[in-house]
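Q: I have 1116 residues here and want to know how they pack in 3D. Can you give me a structure?
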Amino acid sequence: MEFIVAPILLLLFLYFFGLLLNKKDEIIRKELKPILSKIEEFNQLFNTLKLKRKYISSFEIFNFKSETKHIYNLIKTKKYKYPHKFDSSIKKINTFRQTYESIESIINSRNENFIDSELKNTNSLLSDIEGKSLDNQQRKAVIIDEDNQLVIAGAGSGKTTTIAGKVKYLTTIQDINPQSILLISFTRKAADEMRDRIFNKMNIDIPVKTFNKLGLDIIAQVNNLKPSIYDANGKSHLERISSFIDHAKESEEYYNLLIDFISYYLKPYKDIAEFVTDAEHNNYLNEQKLEGYKMVEKRRSNGQVIRYRERLKSQEEVFIANFLFRNGINYEYEDKYPYKTASKQFGQYKPDFYLPDYDVYIEHFGVDENWNVPDWFKGKDRKSAKEVYNEGIKWKRQEHRNNSTTLVESYSWQQKKGILLPELKKNLEEVGVVFNPLSNDKLWLILKENASKDISDFTQLLDTFLILLKSNNEAISNLKKRAFKEDNDRAIKFLELFEPIYHSYQEYLIEEEEIDFSDMINNATKVIQDNLYQSLYDYIIIDEYQDISKARFQLIKSLLDQKPSTKLFCVGDDWQSIYRFAGSDIGLFTNFEKHFKSSTVTNYSRVTQTSFIEYTYRFDNQLINLSSNFILKNPNQISKKLKSHHKSEEVPYSIFKYSDPDRKSIELHLALRSALDHIAEKSENNDASVLLLGRYDFERRNFLNGSFLIELYNKISNQYEYIYNEFPNLKIRFLTAHRSKGLEDDYVIVTNCSSGTYGFPSEISDDPLLNFLLSKADQFPNGEERRLFYVAMTRAKKHVSFLVNNDYTSKFIDEIEVNEKITELKCNWCDIGKLIERNGKFGYFYACNNNHYCNYTRKITANDFKILAYEYYDKEEFKLAIEYFENYISLEECNSDSYYYLGRSYEQNSDLKNALINYEKAIAQDSSNAYAHYWCGSVHFDLENYNKSLEYLLKLNKLKPNWGPVNLCLGRVYLKLGYFFKSIHHLNIEIKVKKDTVDSNSALLLRNKLIDSLKERFTSKESNIKSTDLESIKICIQLAIDFEVNIKFNYHKSKQFEGGIESLRTIKPKGFKVMGMYNSVCVFGYCYMREEERIFNIERISDLKINPNEIEFNSK
């Protein structure tokens, strides 16, 4: 009984245990089912996303993750410990978790593959953009579709064509509504041209606007009324500003401050210690026209009396002169001292100021509190400048003591501390001078009559500040805080004067119900931020983005913040940012990613993709090297590597010098004529366009001094054009460098390459007050002027010429003539600049191009030159590669490869002689250098040294049998030497070994051509084959087979010439066989002697004749 119960109990246990397990499994299945269902839903959504024919942006990834995050949250914290039967389900869960956490990297990889495939799929579309085919960089920029995209372009690289391609791609392939694409340009002319290109030529109707038009349209839509526009230009506007000043003058406090500012603060103070040289100081005096309010009368030799403002020799002396004038104190400037003082050491004394009503003298000394003088002061007779100057101070004091005259002293250090005039007033009062200040009204009338330019300069300064303040959407209160923080007395006073004018201007606009151009943008930004306007745009495309200003940036940012899904596509070139004076901020370009990173979407930051388009279609590689090397001296410019399909070895520029010590440009026409003659010669009397580029418009007046040009004004183009009768094929026009942006001509002549205030670079600095509103993103010396000079150079398609004042040469021309090369190496010290290559008395060294701030230098090693040499070789810049290989070799014995690549560089530079020298040096260093052998053979072939070519090629074939195209080359050499059968032999090998390659196809063509030539010869007459080479004999017999002609030969008892001749045979060959234990190659065919088919070992054949004149045979 027990034996029966036990099994039953076991079965019952197993049965109920199974039921329990099944129930547990059912619970697990129910638990997993919704999770797996959600995962399946996710997978479908993810696959749908990945399969879209589009670049998936970071914002789209963010949205996808946000929409599916609930699935991830459902499972991310759970730990699934289930039986093995559920392993497949757990694997799905783990895979999902990994996928979700890696979505960004998965999509990034997917996007890279998409770009590759889309480049192929859009080949036809992007090969015809306005009749032009986009290059690979342009196509990638078109296809990439990130949140923000900055396309950094080079001069002449097709920026506008890229934009047109982007629009065509979005509307044609991505099916984006054209009305949701906003294209913005900076000028009406540029916008009209873009509209014409896209609508009329591509038949795509998208909104194309300027920033002002965009702002105006937004305001009109919100207010349902188009506002009237105030014209803030011209004479009437400045007259209105003047009326605001007159109104503000009704306040005595304002009037006093105004008079003080014009008298003492109109021109920014420059301490004499800031000058570097005496010449710089003299130029400053000549150019700044430091004039007081006192009028001087002078009678000319013809009796005419002229009146002019008194000229002074320093700004501090102007302060003193105006101070005396305003206080009714009569004075004489630098009048002779009434007592004789001339001596061997000192001349006749002329005190700075003499007050005749009080018999008081004022002497102003240019010293600091320690009696030091500026560094540019000169010493004398082995005495330092300080000693000489202080001896002069003592001498003047002693003269006054000796003659009992009253001397009041003032010092430069007092002005620096802001106490010059208060101290002078105190000291003058102590010696009895009485102050009778002129009333404000009287002084104002004097200013209007004698110093009207000072008033107009102040009015213009107010207007410029007003425009910049509004274009930057800046608050006066912020500027005041900054001025107080910096303890900037001039700025504090100016802002006190400016604020009432600003309020009067704003009140005027309100009363007249008008807005100005800045209001268009600022008001539009505000209504967007207040959600009174809803953006219609999915894409915003901005051309010439390097010209962006703070207010324009804020307008675009407000549109992106309101509609975060909007894509931003900007194209520009920071190297051509030249409108800082109008408010453009290069920092908004160079720090693009930072400025457009923030988003109104919680926990999201917009992502920027930076692309480059670097192929220029305007000029050649030499102009690229010249202009790029020049602009990159500024370490703040973004580095890009421009390339061109046009290769040249010609120097891309010419310098034409003239003498002009008086800076009157009287002889400039001589240099201009030489430059034009040079262009006429280069153009070979074909039509050529010439662009004369000046830094300032007035420069064109100097062109006509030589009377060889006829000037015409073109009203339609608003430019001056010139006819050169001697060369009427030259189409000549003049523009300023600023106006030339976006244009191009065959030849460019930069007409003002001089130093000085009105030179290039211009040394007219912005008023420091404007720096409160102008960009500080680039503080590199002459940074803006360098970019402008770059723009001028890169308008040329063929050649650029510089007209240079030999007496005052532009620092930019000095740089170009020195031609210091800028490298890609970063400075190890400041980590901002790049290293410039220089050669000093101790050899080659690197210096940081950020030398305004950084003094880092280091010695250049042989390895540095070696690295650069290979870099230039890889970039196919062979002239530079030669230079650096030679520099490297001059410092260190190099290896075979370096000599080889130097040889290759010389050969690519068409210098075959030096190429051979270096190939041979490479072989001497390493006799196994196959490449050197090959190119030695190749160069000798080009030089028609066929035996030398054969020598090197045979050595190569011995080193590396059948290497590269060696058999093709041997075939060609043997053909030139008349060894036709050896030629065919090597050509056959090339065809067999390199089947279906370019080389084998070339060998096939050459062999067939040679065989055709031999057929005509072998089938028309008897040909004696003198070769004893078995391979040549076999080839000859094969030709006889192919040509179906007889052959005749001596047949030996054993190998050729061994064992004597056995017989003379004539046969009709049919083919070859390999026979015997030695695998001998034999020819078989009809034997006329035996009258049957016979076999002959070709090793026993000599004196072969093809197509013999008669059939002969015998047996010996």
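Q: Anything worth noting?
A: The chain has 38 helices and 34 strands. The chain has a mean pLDDT of 88.
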